[in-house]
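User: Could you check the structure of this?
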Amino acid sequence: MGAVLTDPDGSVLAEGRNRAYDDGPGAGPLRGTPLAHAEMNALGAARTEWGLEALTLWSTQEPCSMCTAAASFTGVGEVRFLAPDPWALATGNSGSSGVTGTDHWPHWLVTANVMFLRSVSAAVPEGREPETLVRSRTLEPETARLHDSLPPGLPPSGRMEPWLTKLWPALCDAATARRRRVRG
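Assistant: Sure, the predicted C-alpha cells are below.
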C-alpha cells in the first residue's frame, strides 16, 4: 500500500508506504510495527507548520479506522482512496472508515489490490495462504485470478513502472471483467 499528501494543485508533499512487515533498521521508527501503515508514514512525513486542512491524503486502499482517525486528528482536509481494502472486504469491514473512495479508475483499483495481495502473500510462510487472499477469490475473483497468475514473490525493488508496464494488459483485462461483474 501507498499513500501521499497532496496540496490543492495535486502536488505531492509527503508520501508513505506500508512498512508493517519490514525488518531491520531505517525508514522511520514505525517500521516493523502494526502502526506502520502507508497513511501513518505519509502523515509522519508531514511538517507541523504545514496547513494540513488544505491537503488531501490519498491512499491506494481504504484507510483503516486508525489511519482515518489519525488524519482527522492531524486536521487533514480530505481523505480519498483508490480501491477497497482487500483485508476489509475479507473481514466484512469494507466501507467502515467513512472515507470517500473513487470508482473513476477501475484499472488502478485492480492494480492497488493486486499489489496488496502480493505483499500479504509474501508475508506469510511458504505453503500458507492469507485469509485475505482466500476471501478475495469470492469477493474480487478477477483480482485474485490475476494475483495467482503472477510469479511468486514481490516485484523487484525500486520503481514500479517496469513491473506495471509489463502487467498492464492483464490489469486492463481484469478491470474490464470486474466492471462487467459489478454492473451485472
